[in-house]
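Anyone up for a design puzzle?
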């Protein structure tokens, strides 16, 4: 694959710091968007001696208050691919979650969708971001998921779900945009295992951030699109990605895709 330009939103996040080396190892050009200038050294240290290039753009996603604001960032960085791996992280209350995980994310989704040169948008979401029960989940798994979404995640869940749905709708609206929603389970620290469960997984489980980064890089370097649930597992990352693409796995099954298109087109 030829060298690509990637706009990485939330560049100082734990997953992003692990994802960036994967991208530049492909000789890709990454524009890493960070909140504060003092985060720059961490970005540069993560990609030392790699063949690609990293530029750092200091811009608070919390201050993106319109599609036009997002478009300015896209126009400046000129990406082929956009990755959203950002979020309020539970800090600042429901208002900040809404501002970043919902508003800012959706502004970038819509701006990217209206930029023909952007051909892929990968959004890092979470496994429980659903409106309806996944057909392969048990009733007990769905009940546990709903308890979590309506409890500890009561502000995060609707914000994240709306962004997932908006991106999915834009992918249907513009066929040339590969809309990828990567949906990991509970994130843990630790080294990359290279073994995952990808596709129609159980409703609960863990996965290392390093494995999330590896799968995200693999999906960006493929023709995959859709929703992909992700947990730790026994299949190699490469084999798992090849399987879900070959079998056309899309975990959006069970959701109201027509409703997404109606609401977010």
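Challenge accepted. My sequence:
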């Amino acid at each position: 694959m030829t060298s690509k330009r990637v706009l990485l939103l939330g560049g100082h996040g734990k997953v992003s710091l692990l994802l960036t080396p994967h991208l530049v190892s492909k000789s890709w050009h990454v524009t890493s968007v960070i909140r504060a200038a003092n985060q720059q050294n961490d970005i540069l240290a993560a990609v030392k001696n790699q063949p690609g290039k990293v530029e750092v753009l200091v811009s608070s996603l919390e201050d993106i208050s319109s599609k036009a604001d997002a478009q300015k960032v896209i126009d400046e960085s000129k990406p082929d691919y956009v990755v959203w791996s950002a979020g309020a992280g539970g800090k600042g209350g429901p208002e900040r979650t809404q501002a970043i995980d919902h508003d800012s994310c959706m502004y970038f989704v819509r701006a990217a969708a209206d930029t023909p040169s952007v051909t892929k948008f990968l959004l890092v979401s979470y496994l429980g971001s659903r409106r309806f029960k996944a057909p392969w989940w048990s009733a007990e798994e769905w009940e546990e998921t709903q308890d979590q979404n309506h409890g500890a995640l009561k502000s995060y869940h609707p914000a994240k779900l709306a962004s997932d749905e908006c991106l999915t709708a834009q992918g249907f609206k513009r066929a040339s945009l590969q809309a990828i929603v990567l949906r990991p389970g509970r994130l843990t620290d630790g080294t990359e295992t290279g073994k995952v469960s990808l596709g129609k997984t159980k409703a609960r489980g863990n996965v290392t951030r390093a494995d999330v980064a590896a799968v995200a890089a693999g999906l960006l370097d493929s023709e995959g699109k859709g929703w992909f649930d992700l947990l730790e597992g026994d299949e190699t990352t490469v084999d798992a990605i090849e399987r879900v693409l070959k079998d056309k796995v899309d975990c959006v099954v069970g959701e109201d895709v027509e409703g997404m298109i109606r609401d977010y087109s």
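A detail worth pointing out: The CA atoms of residues 191 and 254 lie 33 Å apart.
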